[in-house]
Specification:
alpha/beta, Cobalt-precorrin-4 Transmethylase, domain 1, 3 domains, 322 residues, single chain, five-stranded mixed beta sheet
Length: 322
């Protein structure tokens, strides 16, 4: 397909030519209806699409054409170039040559965002290093979908992808997950799910909470929320089908009791630095999360020279006014 033909197709749908360059496109993780209008426009407006499987991507492009064109019968399909984990480096010279000619290329994987536990990183890096324009077309992601539905996200998370199958490297990763206060997201295959849950229970403790998300966005979507030991028992007698994401609760913060001596030391340090007792009390309360009355009483137990005089939030006898 020529550059002029691509521009004409895109102008027909969006009114704006699709700029030459390299488009990293997110694709549905199970439900074709999740293909965004922008992704559909890009996939039907580029000269070629680099993909893992030409048959699967061919079906996706046919769906995109139905979304974009009122009549897709005359749609000129882009070329499909296989660029999976085994062939993407060998495909690079052709990709760079096409971009040098001013073509528009899209990179997709079978599902989700390219490079996220999928092929694509070497190609994106090489294209950027060669100075060509790169664009991202965000789309569905099993990571974000599982996090959202898990009910476990506490603001921070780490994506672990697939764990090593065995050996020291697996043990190291499992130990790191157990010690991390961030939520962890893992991918796992059905036949290794129970083993991984059992291993997580061993290092994290049996009560650590998990969400096992299976077949997200598909007809038989399932999310099991339970302690890791209960989840392991749930799947022990039957091997589930489909693609699986495990979301693991982060390690709970250890409770450290703040003693009166600790609080007095913090108060004295601030007062010695010239801070009023009232401001010192407020600062220590905020820093330690200690109850107001307790910190006030400790502050009023101090008898330090130079702190009397009824100013800076103190009464005439040096007491902090509440």
């Amino acid at each position: 397909m020529t550059e002029a033909h691509t521009q004409t197709q895109t102008e027909t749908q969006t009114g704006t030519p699709l700029a030459p360059g390299f488009y990293v496109v997110g694709t549905p993780i199970g439900n074709l209806q999740d293909l965004t209008p922008r992704a559909a426009a890009v996939l039907t407006g580029v000269d070629a699409v680099i993909c893992e499987d030409t048959r699967r991507t061919g079906k996706l492009i046919s769906h995109a054409a139905e979304v974009v064109f009122a009549d897709s019968a005359d749609f000129a399909r882009p070329a499909l170039l296989v660029g999976n984990e085994h062939t993407e480096r060998a495909r690079l010279p052709e990709v760079l040559e096409r971009l040098d000619r001013g073509e528009r290329l899209a990179l997709v994987t079978d599902a989700g965002m390219p490079t996220v536990s999928d092929p694509g990183t070497p190609m994106v890096a090489a294209v950027a290093a060669a100075g060509f324009q790169t664009f991202v077309v965000p789309g569905p992601s099993a990571v974000s979908a599982a996090l959202a539905v898990s009910g476990l996200l506490n603001g921070r998370y780490v994506f672990e992808g697939f764990l090593p199958r065995k050996g020291r490297s697996r043990s190291v990763r499992l130990t790191a997950i157990a010690a991390d206060d961030r939520v962890a997201v893992l991918y796992e295959s059905p036949n290794r799910l129970t083993t991984t849950l059992q291993d997580l229970a061993a290092v994290c403790g049996p009560e650590r909470q998990v969400a096992v998300a299976r077949e997200l966005t598909k007809l038989h979507e399932e999310v099991v929320r339970a302690s890791v030991s209960d989840a392991a028992a749930h799947y022990a007698n039957s091997t589930p089908k489909g693609e699986i994401v495990i979301v693991v609760e982060g390690k709970a913060a250890e409770s450290t009791e703040v003693t009166d001596s600790d609080l007095l030391e913090l108060l004295e340090a601030r007062i010695d630095a010239g801070v009023s007792r009232r401001d010192a009390v407020a600062a220590v309360m905020e820093a330690t999360g200690t109850a107001k009355r307790r910190v006030y009483d400790l502050a009023n137990s101090l008898d330090r020279p130079g702190q009397r005089g009824g100013h800076n939030g103190e009464s005439a006898d040096g007491q902090v006014e509440r």
